[in-house]
Write a structure and sequence with these properties.
Blueprint: E1 3-10, H1 16-25, E2 33-38, H2 46-50, E3 56-60, H3 70-83, E4 88-92, H4 99-112, E5 115-125, H5 129-146, E6 149-153, H6 160-173, E7 178-180, H7 189-197, E8 202-203, E9 234-240, H8 246-255, H9 259-262, E10 264-273, E11 279-285, E12 288-294, E13 300-307, H10 311-317
Parallel strand pairs: 1-4, 1-5, 2-3, 2-4, 5-6, 6-7, 7-8
Antiparallel strand pairs: 9-13, 10-11, 10-13, 11-12
Bound molecules: zinc ion.
Length: 318
């Protein structure tokens, strides 16, 4: 039986894990699945979040699966394929994983294994598009260019004009992908997957978006340049038994926006105790902080990812 392979890429904070959780929660994947999870930073957060699900998780921690741990990644894939115990493999690269490299590896394995590269998704936070394209285009652009489906996240936070602008900019670098602009909460997991399997469409929250004049650029999109450097990003993390009341979390994250003090924080996530009893999970990107109730854990975990991070100051605020 052919093993289906789905890749869920996306820059830091775009919502890859949220998406995978949604699909698992809604039982979209009825079959046996294995998730390959590659996290950036030494404190694994997503892996810990996903542990409660009854799925097989292979974590690759020591580096990026598109370069420094490519052999580990390839061997892991081969082992999963050989074991014949799974019917679907979900690959979640880190925020800086180069989608082009990961697709290449799967395609090579496709030649002599009974596997099929099914979904190639890039989750893209519409609110951060301009800034991330400017700052981190090497990774960000690569994911957009090589995805067959682009799922825009946080579209509910922008107006139609802003959304239309981002869609037309994406079209300039990828004129064949399906682009989904409907807020994820308004779609079922089945619908999301269905849309992702329909190539080349634009699925709008609003028909009017199709009125935007899209200009296509026929440049060669295959940038065969493997020479990329993840070192522009650093990660800071702790495991902590400390209690962080919600108001304190909110003020910490408000302060993290100050680039002069902390460096450029692009992402933070974690799970902490908020009083003697209750726990929360949080997700921070520069334009949004989400805090939700969570079940208790053995210890709190916090990770912060960014560019030029001031780790000494982070030590003092958490
Ligand atoms: Zn890499």
């Amino acid at each position: 039986m052919t093993i289906q392979i789905d890749i869920f890429s996306g820059f830091f904070g775009a919502g890859k894990t949220t998406l995978i959780k949604k699909l698992i929660d809604e039982n979209v994947y009825s079959k046996k699945i294995t998730l390959i999870e590659n996290e950036f930073g030494e404190i694994p957060i997503d892996g810990a979040f996903l542990k409660k699900y009854n799925i097989e998780i292979k974590e690759i921690k020591a580096g990026c699966i598109c370069c420094s741990t490519v052999i580990d990644f390839t061997n892991t894939l081969r082992e999963i394929i050989k074991s014949k115990e799974t019917e679907r493999i979900i690959i979640e690269p880190s925020g800086v994983g180069k989608l082009s490299e990961i697709v290449k590896i799967v395609k090579i394995l496709e030649e002599d294994n009974d596997i099929h590269l099914n979904l190639v998704i890039a989750a893209v936070d519409v609110t951060m598009y301009e800034e991330f394209t400017e700052l981190f285009s090497e990774f960000y652009g690569d994911q957009i260019i090589h995805a067959s489906t682009i799922l825009l996240s946080r579209t509910q936070n922008v107006d139609d004009e802003e959304l239309g602008k981002v869609v037309s900019k994406i079209r300039e670098i990828n004129d064949t992908a399906s682009i989904v602009t409907t807020p994820w909460d308004d779609l079922s997991g089945i619908e999301l997957i269905g849309l992702s399997e329909a190539d080349g469409q634009q699925i709008s929250r609003d028909e009017d978006l199709s009125a935007f004049d899209l200009e296509f650029d026929d440049d060669d999109h295959d940038h065969d340049d493997d020479d990329h450097n993840h070192d522009i990003f650093t990660s800071w993390g702790i495991e902590t038994p400390k209690i962080f009341p919600v108001t304190q979390l909110e003020s910490i994250f408000e302060s993290l926006k100050d680039e002069a003090i902390f460096g450029k924080v692009v992402r933070s996530k974690g799970k902490v105790q908020i009083d003697g009893v209750n726990w929360v999970e949080f997700d921070f990107v520069p334009n949004a902080l989400e805090i939700r109730a969570s079940e208790p854990d053995e210890i709190g975990r916090i990770t912060v990812i960014g560019h030029d991070l001031n780790q000494a100051i982070l030590d003092t605020v958490f």
